[in-house]
C-alpha cells in the first residue's frame, strides 16, 4: 500500500477560506471589498505614521509658526513650503496630524471594544449558564445602564475615573481612562447576546455529556459553550468598533477625551471647528472626512459580516 503525501492533496488554509461560504459572500459583495480596502489603507497608514508622515506634528522643534494656515497644495506666502492638506494655526502639517491622530482613535476603539467584549462575554456566560440570582443581578444592571445613552455613561465614567487619578498622572492615563469609559458603556449588548445564546446551548447534548464526565462549570462555559456563541459576538464587535471610534471622537470633541499632547481625530476636529467660519476649512474638513471614511467602512464591514453569518439569508 502506497502512502501519498497529504500536503499535495489538501488545499491551504487561505484557499479553503477563500472558497468557503464566507469567502464566496465576500467575493460577491463589492461594498465589503471596498470597505475592507479603505480600512486596511487607513490602518496601515496609522501604524506606519512615523515612516509616512512628512513631519512629526507633535515635536515643537520641527514646527514653524510662519507656516500657519497654509492652504492645501499652495506654497506658503512666507516660507514657500507646500503641504498636501495644508497646515493649522501652529504650522502643523494636517496630513501628519491626521496620521498620528488616527493612531490614537484606532487604539482607543480597538482596546475599548476588546474590554467591552471580554466583560460582556464573561457576564453573559455567567448569567446564561448559571441563571438564578447571578442572572437576575447582571441583567438588572444591564437594564439600568440601557436606560441611559452610552455617551453619557462614558462621560460619567470618564469624569469619575479622571477625578480619582492623581493630577500628575492624568495626561499619561487619559487614554487608558478613555478606553475604560467607552468599554464600560458598551458591554451590555455583548452580555445580552451571549446570555441568550448560552441559555440555548446549555440544553444541548454535548453540554450534558460534559457534565456527565465531570467537567467543571468554567470549563464547560469556556471550552464548550463559548466557541458556539462567537459568531454573533464577532458581528457585534465589528459594528461596536465603529461606534467606539465615534464615541472617542465625540468625547474628544467635547474636550473630555484625548489630551492635547496626544490628540485624536476628535481633538483635531474640535480644533478645526474653531477656524471653520474664518476661511480655514481644511483644518476641519480633512480630519472629519478621515473619521467618516474610517467609521463608515468599519460599519459597512460589520453589516456585511452580519448578513454573511446569518443562516436565514443563505
TrEMBL record:
UniProt record similarity statement? Belongs to the binding-protein-dependent transport system permease family.
| Membrane-crossing residue ranges in chain numbering | 31-53, 104-130, 142-161, 173-194, 225-247, 281-305
Source organism per UniProt: Meridianimarinicoccus aquatilis
Q: What is this protein called?
A: ABC transporter permease
Choose one Gene Ontology CC annotation of this protein and give it. plasma membrane
Q: What does the record give as the organism's lineage?
A: Bacteria, Pseudomonadati, Pseudomonadota, Alphaproteobacteria, Rhodobacterales
Instruction: Give the ABC transmembrane type-1 domain ranges.
Output: 102-302
Which Gene Ontology BP terms does the record give?
transmembrane transport
Q: Where, per UniProt, does this protein localize? A: Cell membrane
